[in-house]
Amino acid sequence: MIVLDTHAWIWWVSSPVFLSAAAKGIIDRAVTERNIFISVISTWEVAILVSRGRLKLTMNAGDWVAASEALPFLNFVPVSNSIALKSVGLPGALHNDPADRIIIATAVSMGAILVTKDEKIRNYPHVKTVW
What DSSP string runs through 7-18? Predict the structure, then answer.
């Protein structure tokens, strides 16, 4: 079971050449097992990036997300009260980006591996990561 960080989701769908071999491998296995999860906060991040011109998609953000939602092996995880609270109480030193904290809390809550290139997250010892 894996959770994709926002950039990993974007790259996997739009530009898989940006994924590391390890990230691609674990995603390919998770496709077969239907065990890919994405926090809905990543949907918010995609919409923000598109609206600010920092991300260009081949279609509007709503259609792009809908296309991802239609994939039978991909599951979106809502930000539950439990995840929101866990994101505030994560142990140890971690930067304060709320979206990253929610994505980490999602992975930790699910006992999942977080696929991320983000070094700050990869250096955080309280979540399992792969890149």
Answer: HHHHHHHH-GGG
